[in-house]
Amino acid sequence: MDSIIGRSQFVSETANLFTDEKTATARAKVVDWCNELASASPSTKCELLVKVQETVLGSCAELAEEFLESVLSLAHDPNMEVRKQVVGFVEQVCKVKVELLPHVINIVSMLLRDNSAQVIKRVIQACGSIYKNGLQYLCSLMEPGDSAEQAWNILSLIKAQILDMIDNENDGIRTNAIKFLEGVVVLQSFADEDSLKRDGDFSLGDVPDHCKLFRRQKLQEEGNNIFDILLQFHGTTHISSVNLIACTSSLCTVAKMRPVFMGSVVDAFKQLNANLPPTLTDSQVSSVRKSLKMQLQTLLKNRGAFEFSGTIRGMLVDLGSSTNEIQKLIPKMDKQEMARRQKRILENAAQSLSKRARLASEQQDQQQREMELDTEELERQKQKSTRVNEKFLAEHFRNPETVVGLVLEFLPSLPTEAPQKFLQEYTPIREMSIQQQVTNISRMFGEQLSEKRLGPGAATFSRDPPMRVKKVQASESTLISMVVDEDAVQKLSEEELQRKEEATKKLRETMERARGEQTVIEKMKERAKTLKLQEITKPLPRNLKEKFLTEAVRRILNSERQCIKGGVSARRRKLVTVIAATFPDNVRYGIMEFILEDVKQRIDLAFSWLFEEYSLLQGFTRHTYVKTENRPDHAYNELLNKLIFGIGERCDHKDKIILIRRVYLEAPILPEVSIGHLVQLSLDDEFSQHGLELIKDLAVLRPPRKNRFVRALLNFSVHERVDLRDRAQAHLVSLYHVHKILPSRIDEFALEWLKFLIQESPPAAVFSQDFGRPTEEPAWREDTGKVCFGLAFTLLPYKPEVYLEQICQVFVATSAELKRTILRSLDNPIKKMGVESAPLLQLIEDCPKGMETLVIRIIYILTERVPSPKEELVRRVRDLYQNKVKDVRVMIPVLSGLTRSELIAVLPKLIKLNPAVVKEVFNRLLGIGAEFAHQTMALSPTDILVALHTIDPSVCDLKAIVKATSLCLAERDLYTQEVLMAVLQQLVEVIPLPTLMMRTTIQSLTLYPRLANFVMNLLQRLIMKQVWRQKVIWEGFLKTVQRLKPQSMPILLHLPPPQLVDALQQCPDLRPALSEYAESMQDEPMNGSGITQQVLDIISGKSVDVFVTDESGGYISAEHIKKEAPDPSEIGVISTVPVLTSLVPLPVPPPIGSDLNQPLPPGED
Fold first, then answer.
1. Where is the Symplekin C-terminal domain (predicted)?
2. Does the domain at residues 23-130+155-165 carry the CATH identifier 1.25.10.10?
3. Confidence of residue 323 (pLDDT cuts 50, 70, 90)
């Protein structure tokens, strides 16, 4: 047993250990993500927030409070998407750890006032779940603290804010607000047996009685008020279709979840079905009716709708549902359930009747109390109004300008004679001051304004006249006695008899009067005769009839607002349309002017008229209309053109774009005049982009006229203006490649203009007013050439098998100037085709005669900014160079794809080219500049410099090699001190030594003086290699020694005596330094490290015997010494030397003929 217990404890500790490790890992990740949030881009911030949310709220909820502030700080981020992501995080926090509600609710309230509508909509969506979870959490608190109370206050504030947003200008915000209020109504009402059950449902029944933050009754009243607001919003006439459908859905959900609201919802739906908002279009009406039908079907399935099933069935039949469909929707109930529900309906009806009776009795009691006008209160209101008006007028009458303005304005309205009433009431003004006169006039005017209830004093009057209960005086008739005496009965009977006699008398008088009138009518009929309208009337003048007609039409036009309110706007539009299409021109023009006054709002009326004209033109409609002498399509064309011109002249730029597009896309037919006007509009800088796009869309959407619109785009594709040309070509590519509209016509046009380049001068077809080039030109210009081949180059990537061959033929036949223009314009089409294009690769492989320059340019474009060219391309270029084109420039674009040996082989030919080309070659080889920095070469900078030194001088001129090495050494970033050391070490090992080695050594020493020690070692190695055997290298050796003196003096002492003598003869300036160095070494013993007497004699210039060493560099023994046989023909090999009798330096022999091509020593070239 103990072992089991111990094992259980061990497992628990292990689990805790792994849990802690998991939390620590998650914390580390979240910390890193939070650090990245500060400097990340908006999209990256959103991704990081998603990761933080998944990690913290998904697997490690205990970290939520720790990193909450870091996430909430992003609520102030300028990017909208980041703020929306923060809202999602807060929503998830309230689901996972609702106890953090007090910490996050302030952020929700702040974001609800955000400037972005998208953020506000996201906040409202999140508030649904936040409010529900918050309400459940606050109900569960036994002792809520200050933070909980503050959270509830902010939740209530959020609820009020969203309630106000039901009237927001944004349609989406209103829709989301409706859905939120739907949830509030469901949460703040009681559920019953018929309520639709959902997981996690919450109602007022779940609110405990002991809750200290809120009470059930208050929440229920608030929920009922919000429900009433939803009903009012649902019944407004200005509601949009989207909001109406959303509100209908919300009311249906409320009725299903809380059947107590079922009656009100059914009544609202009934009212909606009878009176749809007049602002809806036909399609919107159809959508609303479809949605209403669906919601009613959903309600009918609910058991709570049993009481209202008759009303719902009636509405469904009206909306188009069949009886069988309705019968299937009614829920099945047994007889007991049916009886129980019928009984409940009767009880509700009885309660309703009793309530009505009670209300009726109360209303009757109120009606029995007679009311009368409260004259005293009315008089008080008049006096107060007079005082307010008098004060207001007195303030303004003190300003002379105001008084003069009033006199001048109303002076023409004065009658010619004073009214009698004025004369009776007028009293002359006695001598008064100006202030008294102002007061008097203000009082008189104030009284008149009060009588008319005008001016600022009108606010003191109540809306309805003040009333009071009429006082009834007590009379003897009100004191009813229980005993009725006979006198009262007799008096009552006498009064009744008197009343009957009066009634009989009145009846007799009435009958006699009627009889007399009948006699008069009969006598009048005897004297009357038949009258004809034409005899008693005369026709109105034509101008008067036209005036009446015009005024009648104007009244119809001006009744726009009233017709919308009355729901007959469609009938008015139909009436105006028929009048406009069938009445004379003056009426037509008046209606057109009315439309153009506000064409944005009246465009639907214009379209109705346009389609009416089209129907008359096609014979679809047969109205009687005024005959004209014009063509049948004159009225339609005139209307369309006036509409287009009116939009262009009267609308601002934004509305002009939208309305012009609508007219051209929705008009039933487009005459040529309208299309020509669109073409002219497209020449306008502001409208060109939209005009060309519209022409392209018309070519797609109007197939019968596609030829005309494609022709317009083709003309623009060769226009002189570059912006029009580029846009037109882009639209033609869309028609050509995407929509496949008239591709053969486009090909024909492009190839026709391409072949113009073959001619010696531009043909006349290139110049036209339509193309923006009205004046002919005698010679080709670069811009004219670009116009001719521009469309062909644009279409080249989409049909290379046709256009590539034609371009090659034109390139061969055209002039040199146009060839250069073509080469400069190849970049975009060739880059779009790409290196995988089979026609391009085939062209490179074949390379017809005369196409070499074009092929090389294509290769350059295909390899531009490519780290390494495709192997297929390199292979074809290599074959091209080896078999057809011997120009080494072909290989330049693919240098990064060549092997080491191939690069070394072509290097001598490359450095012979033009200096500019050589510069580009070395930029490629060395990766200099942004254009070539990404390329990878088989040769390193060290290998390239070594290869340059090892080039055979017989193959390439030394001057070209010198220039190439100078280009390399000029790049100090690449040829650093270490790289040059590696180069010189490799050059020393080359046999024979490269001619330019010492020159490069001196240049390296000039660039990097710190190489002195390295060069000293290098010189010692050169002595071992008998550097004096190569004249140029030997001279460079001596130059280097001169540069490094006095440190290089020990190097001279390592030379054999003959070479030392030669060195001192060629460079006499070395002798003093060497002598000084020798004197400093006199104290050294005569061993291997000392200086021999022979060397000292050579240095001092005394007579010495010089022994010539053999080729191995060792000294010759005394018995083998022979005198030198003077033979000037063999200077390069010396076998013996004579004993010198003097130390006079021998003159340096001049170079023989074979050395004329050798370069000058380094520093003297």
1. 887-1067
2. yes
3. confident
The predicted-structure confidence for 839-862, as pLDDT tens digits, reads as follows 999 998 888 888 888 998 998 898
Name 191's Cβ contacts closer than 8 Å, sequence gap at least 6.
201, 203, 205, 257, 258
Parallel/antiparallel/unpaired status of strands 467-469 and 371-373: antiparallel
| pLDDT tens-digit readout, 44-72 | 889 888 888 888 887 777 788 888 888 88
Contact 799, 839 (CB under 8 A): no
Torsion angle (degrees, nearest 10) of CA 810, 816, 819, 820 = -170
Distance, in Å, from the CA atom of 295 to the CA atom of 315, rounded to the nearest integer, reads: 11
Q: Which of 66, 173, 58, 85 has the alpha carbon at shortest distance from 124?
A: 173
Q: Name, of 365-369, 525-529, 636-640, the range with top average pLDDT.
A: 636-640
SS3 1165: coil
CA 575 to chain centre: 43
45 neighbors 79 (Cβ within 8 angstroms):
yes
Structure tokens that stand for 972 in this block: 């100090």
> Exposure string (b/e) for 1013-1023, b if CB count within 10 Å is 16 or more?
ebbbebbeebb
One-letter amino acid for residue 429 of the chain: I
Task: Look up the CATH superfamily of 169-296.
Answer: Leucine-rich Repeat Variant (1.25.10.10)
With vertex at residue 1060, the alpha carbon angle to CA 1058 and CA 1063, rounded to the nearest 5 degrees, is: 110
Task: Indicate the residue type of 498.
Answer: Q
Q: Taking 90 as the threshold, does the pLDDT of residue 792 lie above it?
A: yes
Burial code (b: 16+ CB inside 10 Å, e: under 16) for 1115-1125 equals eeeeeeeeeee
Which value, in Å, is the radius of gyration of the alpha carbons in the chain?
A: 55
Q: Which tokens belong to 210?
A: 């002991």
What secondary structure letter does DSSP report for 539?
P
Q: How many Å apart are CA 729 and CA 706, to the nearest integer?
A: 16
CA–CA separation, 93 and 69 (whole Å): 12
Spatial separation of the C-alpha atoms in residues 1053 and 1076, rounded to whole Å: 13
Cα 1023 to Cα 813, 1052, 1074, 1113: the distances in Å are 64, 9, 17, 9
Q: How far is it, in rounded angstroms, from Cα 329 to Cα 300? A: 6
Mapped onto helix, strand or coil, the DSSP state of residue 799 is coil
Question: What is the rounded average pLDDT of the residues 508-526?
Answer: 50
- pLDDT tens string 155-173: 999 999 999 898 888 889 9
- Cis, bond preceding 994 (omega within 30 deg of 0): no
Full DSSP string of 91-130: HHHHHH-GGGHHHHHHHHHHHTT-S-HHHHHHHHHHHHHH
